[in-house]
Amino acid sequence: MTFLIFTLMKKLLLSTFLMLLSTIISAQDTNNSIIKEQSKKDTIKPIQMQEVIVIGKKAQLSDKQSKTLTSIDDYLQKSAKVDMIKRGAYAWEPIINSMPSERTLVTIDGMRIFGACTDKMDPITSYVEVSNLSEATICSGQEGACFGSTIGGSINLKRNQNNFGNKKWNFNINSGFETNNQQKIIGTALNYTDNLFYVDTDFMLRDAENYKAGNNKEVLFSQFKKMNFSVTSGFKLSKNKLIEASLIYDKATDVGYPALPMDVSIAEAIITSLKYEYIPLNSIVTNWETKLYFNTIMHKMDDTKRPSVPIHMDMPGWSKTYGYYSKIKAKYNKNNLLVNLNSFYNKSLAEMTMYPADPNENLMFMLTWPNVVTFYNGLFIEDYYDLNCHSNIKVSASIGNHYNKIESELGLNSLQILYPEMEAQNTRFLKSFSANYNTSKNGFEFGFGAAYGERAPSITEAYGFYLFNSFENYDNIGNPNLKNETSLEGNAFVGLKKEKIKMKITSSYFHISNYIVGKPDTSLIPMTIGATGVKIYTALDYATIFNISLTSEIKFSRQLKWNSQLVYSRGKDFNNVNLPFISPISYSTSIAYSKEKLSSEIVFQGNAKHTNFGGIYGEDKTPDYAIINANFGYKFNINKSKLITKFGIENILDTYYSTYSDWNNFPRQGRNFFVNLSCSL
Amino acid sequence: MKTILKNIFTILVMVVALTSCSNDDENTNPTVNELDGLTKFKEITNTTHTIELYSHTGATVQGYNEIKLRIKNNANNQYIKNAEVTWMPIMHMAMMNHSCPKSTVEKISIDGTLYEGYIMFQMAQNTTEYWDLKIDYTIDNVDYTMTSVIDVPASAKRTVNTFTGSDGVKYLVAYVDPHHPKVAVNDLVVGVWKMQDMMTFPVVDGYTVKIDPRMPSMGNHSSPNNVNATQLTAGNLYKGKLSLTMTGYWKINLQLAKPDGTILKGEEITETVTSSSIYFEIEF
Fold this sequence. Notes:
heterodimer; A: mainly beta; Maltoporin, Chain A; 2 domains; 22-stranded antiparallel barrel; 5-stranded mixed beta sheet; globular; B: mainly beta; Immunoglobulin-like; 9-stranded antiparallel beta sheet; 5-stranded antiparallel beta sheet; 2 helices
């Protein structure tokens, strides 16, 4: 078996290599004939389909943002490709191209991190803060396969990148307040830079009470408290060598999840890394970055504050990840090569302890994630090849070895109740390939691509044990015999980029085979009190997901700008049954006026009625809604200090609404006044 | 000081080893191994012999008891290897006496000294009613006997069901194994007997003990892939598979079925029927 896999891997490697070689050779051929034009072309950057959301640069949050101190989730959901599944006011789960976390890849500076919560209450995005980040890169489908396997796409959260320079201190204070949930935000950032050394520190604290939905209805258990500290320090070893160490410590306490039967008493993450960067001079290789990282997450679900629970239970989870990547960028004639060798070792463990009403009775204990090791080793190669000054081809391929092992004997025994033949270990091979053509001429952009990708089942899908899903009201049991999910993808975009008008239509189509979903097994009796039944993860023959979005930006004058976004998605399985969490038509349009130090914006945002809902997955018809937000900002310059002020009202009309992605239809926030202040000294 | 103690200890060990060797010849090692995991809970003596009774727990309790014994010759402290042993447990009640299900007593190995069997005490002793055990044994065609009271306290959890089936026969169903249940698929062993008369309780052959483990403290949920207990060979205990998905208190609801499927006793668990009239309890 291993031999077979080995030969397969060899073949794949070889074919990938040959393919790359051929592109390089062909590139050379065309290059030689038009050598004179080369210097001109070098300055042209490859056209990228990926979307970048700018959060802020360095420690200073961007004054361009309408609400500088809003959550990362809020920043991300501005993208037409990203939406958020909401279980409370905090820690929303990003979905990319209508696909939730199992099918996507979220990284922080290329680091793989895995949430420790079996109920997805702690997506990776919940362990960082806006003040840590400079931007989020959103890649659709296989274009996001650089740091591992994905189906829907990836989000890479990029941290602030300081640079060496003249000796300089920088101090920032951020503060904010929101009326709806009395959210208090306070943060500081301190940076030091000189020619050889820099250090960035950043601290942010948020404390929010229950929020109120429209019509002043209080949403119980929607409070949260979060503290985030981060430090990055770099040292220049020589002119072109840099070493950088970083640490993020994030701690959230007393986090309510109004849509779930349980809250979180504590969620704590330590995320560390050591990076070595080498920028060769006069070489084909333009940049070589290697990073070693480690992160550990502890997450404790808790129901002690709920007034009536059928049975009190604790559900703690732990996730530890060790990893590295080594990324080389090279430029050779018209090829822009990227090679990323990456690996991670993760251990995920989750327990459940139930406390019987009779205190003399023994505690009921089980493992819901049986201490599962995931060891991944992958290689990703990408090449941008400039066909001519206005078009390019991008080809990428990756292979990975995905190994799982159940470390806990109790956990293995538990799963063997259902799968007597199952073994503790499992090895999978994951491959991906993508090709894109992009062109841009006279402000007209156009591109299309095709891709193939695979992913391994998540720990919950393969090894989860009686995990209750309160949305479907089913207990879910993993299935170690699942095949890899495979995706065939086509994408295209067409855009217009003129001085006064920018428009872009982007669409993607995914045909996903062995689509993993939970399927009710009537022979099994649920464990959770009140649950409808038990679902076992199985694979549908296939499912298709189609997304199309239109974004436009029209500048009426230098000050007045009109932005619009319209998104349509459709997801069905092979029997034409709707998939869950597929957005109905959603739209947003905003008019922004900015003049010198003043900025203002009014936003109109809404969803059409959710009629193509996935009934068998617990969804129901969600009515349409529309809300209006407005904000106003002013920038003060006092001597050398700067003060950015932002005021705003969200949901001005105090609409009571819920969206398709609100867990169990719990309502969104009602009218909210906010003020954000950022001061840099 | 320490070394002196160590030396003394070594010498002691050697002395003990040598003396025991001289007593038991080359049978020392098997004798030591024989008692692995066993604890003596009773010694009964008559003029000629002493019978040592062993069990895994070092006690007897209401329910199924696996008992091992060996017979020592009082004259030379040698253990008898060629005895024929039978036993008869008797419950002395106010109005009557009765026995209980029991096995024959067999020698474990030819070279060993231990004899084994089981006794299923279907009821516990109380202040006025008690169990005693009469052991009859024959050595070299000479019959001997001895009798002693046996301590049979009530079991903490229900391990025995005594009932009259729908066919009018009085049955006894007892929990045998697992002694140490785990979160896993456990090998379940159950005994089924019937009362022929007050002194005779033969094994019932060919029936099925249907099982449905439930957790009453957690919504009375069940576990998947249990296998009902059936007999592999006549005269033996019944074997099945018991799936336990978590630790805690489990109630194993039972139904006793005849070979033709007729349920003699016990109810199926439904929304309204949360417990069968016959069941076992385990907690771990």
